[in-house]
Amino acid sequence: MKQLTKKWLMIGIVAIVVIAAGGYAIANELFDRDSPMEEKVETIFDDDVDVDDVDDDDHFESKNNTQKAVQSPQPKAVKVDFNSAMKTALADAKTGFVTDIELDFDNNQPHYDIEIAENNTQKSYIIDATTGQIISSMVENEDDYPITEPKQKMADIIALIGNKYKGAQIKDISLDSDFPNQMVYDVTIIADNLEKEIIISADDASVISEKLDD
Question: PepSY domain spans which residues (predicted)?
Fold first, then answer.
């Protein structure tokens, strides 16, 4: 009886060892095999991609490119010249003479600032440099403003500049009564991409001085 029991015990142990060895072999076979799932996992984790870098860098680069594409609006073209703007202002004022005229831009909209003097009265106009229409006007009384009408009118100075400085763009012209011994016109022009200041006699239209603006 004892021998029979011992015999069956040995058979059981052998069976357990065989089953264990078979399971180990099967497990090795499964994990050593290049299955589609394993390839998929390797593809996901082995690619040299930095997710954080892609998200941040691409986001900011895209944003910067969008900002570069948005450009500031271009200034409107000047379609009305100095003489035409002066005529519009003088026609509305009816009397007086032009002492100051300047081409200026406000929010890319070009306009002329014009001042007309008559005795103690100063009339100010803003003329649209695109349409030629009067944007606004104002009249002021100045006790210390009286100024004598010069021999050379503003239109004469504009003609002189056009002849003497070919292709130059006039920026502003202002009648100056404080110059020693005579009235003069202070003129600013842009020629060859350089800004130049010129002083012209209001008596005989001679050029007193000219220099590049610092």
Answer: 82-137
Q: What is the DSSP letter of 119?
A: T
CB of 206 within 8 A of CB of 152? no
* Strands 121-128 and 109-118, sheet pairing: antiparallel
Q: pLDDT, tens digit, for every residue of 31-76?
A: 445 444 444 434 443 455 454 554 555 554 555 554 444 555 677 8
Tell me, what amino acid is at 117?
A
Q: What is the CATH code of the structural domain delimited by 82-212?
A: 3.10.450.40
Q: Considering only CA atoms, which of 74, 80, 173 is closest in space to residue 128?
A: 80
- The single residue listed with the structure tokens 């606004």 is 136
CB atoms within 10 A of CB 185: 26
Tokens of 210: 């000219």
> What is the side-by-side order of every strand in the sheet holding 97-106?
134-141, 121-128, 109-118, 97-106, 169-176, 184-191, 194-201, 207-212
User: What are the sequence ranges of the domains in the chain?
Assistant: 2-69, 82-212
Alpha-carbon distance of 160 to 199, in angstroms, equals: 12
Question: What φ, ψ does residue 133 adopt, rounded to 5°?
Answer: -80, 150
CA 85-118-179 angle, to 5 degrees, is 85
